Amino acid sequence: MADTVLRVEDLSVYYYTLRGIVRAVEGAWLEARRGELVAIVGESGSGKSTLGYSLLRLVPPPGRIVKGRILVDGVDLTELQGDELRRARGELVSIVFQDPFTTLDPVRRIGDQLLEVLLEHGVPEEEARGRVPQLLESVGLPREAARAYPHQLSGGQRQRVSIAAAIALEPRVLVADEPTTALDVIVQKQIMDLLDELRRRHGMAVVLVTHDIALAAERASSIAIMYAGKIVEQGPAEEVLREPLHPYTRALLDSVPDIDNPRWPRPIPGQPPDLRRPPPGCRFAPRCPVVMEKCRSKEPPVVSPRPGRKAACWLHAP
Ligand SMILES: Nc1ncnc2c1ncn2[C@@H]1O[C@H](COP(=O)(O)OP(=O)(O)OP(=O)(O)O)[C@@H](O)[C@H]1O
Ligand code: NI
Questions:
Q1: In angstroms, rounded to a whole number, what is the distance separating the alpha carbons of residues 166 and 150?
Q2: Which residues line ligand 1 (CB under 6 A)?
Q3: I need a surface site. Which of 13, 50, 116, 264 has the fewest CB within 10 A?
Q4: Which GO annotations describe the biological process of this protein (predicted)?
């Protein structure tokens, strides 16, 4: 599609630990269109953050991208090096973390930190100085916040500053890894509202990494479901939630309390696999209520049984 700004193709990311190779992301695929919010949803340890960091080539050691392509506006990030990569981080794709201190330096004033982001990307000094107050205002902070140190701000205000830093260069894609998990509910809503507003204003795609399917349901236009390192399904949010294609998506939906669903939440039986020794075939096969013989030996292909929807499941494969 013409307005696709992010396309992840066949991406695998492994951690080479002393105790074995953790196949944290395997053959992942993902798409985001201009201005849309894509939520990556999955249980803890399913590889959501690893996938999110990969989009900036920021996988921490001993992690490494072992294969695949990450196309942002047609530029393959996996091929960039040095200065090109540094420029792409910020100008093409940027990230907001759960803990704003990951981005903010506790001993430097907010304004200086934002200024530095602009200067590092070649914005002339005078222009950059003029942009700092605008940036603060665009994230709902007073321009006086420039003189503050991070510890003088509340958690929500600090998250606004890290969002300001992330959008300073107007990236095409903003990855937000559990950006509101550390905040109380009211502030959580304000930060999500801010992300929505910035996304609409700049036409930027937001990739929201979250374990919270209710948050995804409320905010996302598109949902990608991740299980044990694999994207198992992606499609328009309402369709995925109303009529999931993958048995894991259904199990995940049944496992969360839902006021519209009179049934008691049913936890998914069994445990996710050890990613050092994932099962052959479909990784969900050992827990799947509708497993078939071939699921245990052959990896399901990614198919598109309906326009706009994709799933990796033998139920829908020819
Ligand atoms: N630095 C690391 N070294 C080794 N293994 C790692 C490292 N970081 C993550 N992993 C492993 O990679 C897998 C995916 O982890 P990841 O943090 O990406 O999952 P997640 O879906 O973001 O989980 P959570 O919801 O708990 O944040 C897990 O098995 C995890 O133990
Ligand atoms: Ni995570």
A1: 16
A2: 15, 17, 22, 24, 42, 44-50, 60, 62-63, 211, 275
A3: 264
A4: peptide transport
User: Cβ(200)–Cβ(35) under 8 Å?
Assistant: yes
Ligand 1 atom nearest to CA at 226: 21
Helix (H/G/I), strand (E/B), else coil: 249: helix
Tens of pLDDT, residues 111-137: 999 999 999 999 999 999 999 999 999
Q: Is residue 306 part of a domain?
A: no
Interface confidence (ipTM) of the complex:
0.99
Domain span at residue 45 reads: 4-301
Report the DSSP beta bridge partners of residue 311.
233, 303
Residue 318 within any structural domain of the chain: no
Q: Is the pLDDT of residue 1 over 60?
A: no
Q: Is residue 307 part of a domain?
A: no
- Residue 241 belongs to domain with CATH number: 3.40.50.300
DSSP codes of every residue in 98-157 = SSGGGTS-TTS-HHHHHHHHHHHTT--HHHHHHHHHHHHHHTT--GGGGG--GGGS-HHH
How far, in Å, from the CA of 178 to the mean position of ligand 2? 7
Asked whether residue 315 is domain-assigned, the answer is: no
Q: Contact, 276 vs 264, CB < 8 A?
A: no
Beta bridge partners of 208: 39, 176
Beta bridge partners of 210: 41
Q: What is the pLDDT of residues 71-86, one digit of tens each?
A: 999 999 999 999 999 9
Write out pLDDT tens, residues 11-62.
999 999 999 999 999 999 999 999 999 999 999 999 999 999 999 999 999 9
Q: What is the pLDDT of residue 100?
A: 82
Residue 259's pLDDT is what?
A: 67
